[in-house]
Design a protein that fits this description.
Chain A is an all-alpha fold. Chain A has six helices and no strands. Chain B has one domain. The chains are: A mainly alpha (about 160), B mainly alpha (about 120).
Chain lengths: ~160, ~120
């Protein structure tokens, strides 16, 4: 995800670093709190990746379409926190280790379930976000219509 | 102390992901999310090496946690991979969505296995 905030590249990187400094330890802490035995389904990483996908999808809609524009919220929460909270490399290496241990069924389940649940959680997050957008625009219907009208007039000029 | 190390390593991994994504995106103007793919595959390789060194060459549990769970975990991302894939589906770019999933998984698994094998 590329942010369009070129004006303060150093501060954007700092916001991402602070978000990462919280997201990575959150994942590590959950791994310590809910350890999974070797050669079994890595349920903790699965839950982290699925919940993080839902939250990222929801946040992207809220940030782009509901909340007032900000410079550092997306780098901090989306790129930093949720990017670091979820992980792709552990998903792959866990699956590799399940394969080399001969646990083919668990390896396949880890691949397929993570993928399906991750994409499903993302679609759910996007539609929950869109639901919030729709409710807001129907509540502010009059002002939204006025805005659309002035945009059309502006376009004709 | 390990938690602090994981935090510092994650504070390096996450901005590194952002910079690599921007670098790759600046060279590819199409809709395909090459940046995240490159990040996730390279991160899976490095994590494979680290986990392999932990299992076979005595790399400490603390070092594997900081560099593997912290640095590689924060550098790679599942959530962005998911959102980018669903976005491709929404844009009806079904071929690209399937390609993104297929190449990410195949190359990610191979890269992780190569890293594990290298450190054996």
């Amino acid at each position: 995800m590329v942010s369009s905030t070129d004006s303060h590249p150093g501060r954007v990187l700092a916001a991402i670093a602070v978000g990462g400094a919280l997201g990575g330890p959150a994942r590590y802490g959950l791994g310590l709190a809910f350890p999974t035995a070797p050669h079994t389904f890595p349920a903790t990483t699965f839950a982290i990746n699925v919940s993080g996908s839902f939250l990222l999808a929801l946040l992207v809609v809220l940030i782009l379409e509901v909340w007032p524009p900000t410079t550092y919220v997306r780098p901090f929460l989306c790129v930093g926190f949720l990017g670091a909270y979820t992980t792709f490399s552990t998903w792959m290496v866990d699956t590799d280790r399940l394969i080399s241990a001969g646990a083919w069924g668990t390896a396949a389940a880890n691949l397929v379930l993570s993928l399906v649940a991750g994409l499903g959680a993302t679609a759910l997050g996007l539609s929950v976000g869109q639901g919030i957008v729709t409710r807001r625009s129907s509540r502010e219907g009059v002002s939204a219509e006025a805005g659309a009208e002035s945009e059309t007039i502006g376009g004709r000029r | 102390m390990t938690l602090l190390g994981v935090a510092i390593a994650s504070a390096i991994g996450a901005p590194a992901r952002y910079l690599v994504d921007r670098l790759v995106a600046s060279r590819n103007r199409g809709a395909f999310p090459w940046g995240t793919l490159v990040i996730n595959v390279t991160g899976a390789f490095v994590l494979g090496v680290l986990v392999g060194m932990g299992a076979h060459h005595g790399l400490s549990k603390q070092a594997v946690a900081i560099l593997g769970t912290g640095l590689c975990g924060a550098y790679t991302t599942f959530s962005t991979f998911s959102v980018e894939t669903v976005r491709l589906v929404e844009e009806r770019a079904f071929g690209k969505a399937v390609l993104n999933v297929g190449v990410s998984l195949a190359a990610g698994l191979l890269a992780g296995a190569a890293g594990l094998g290298l450190a054996q």
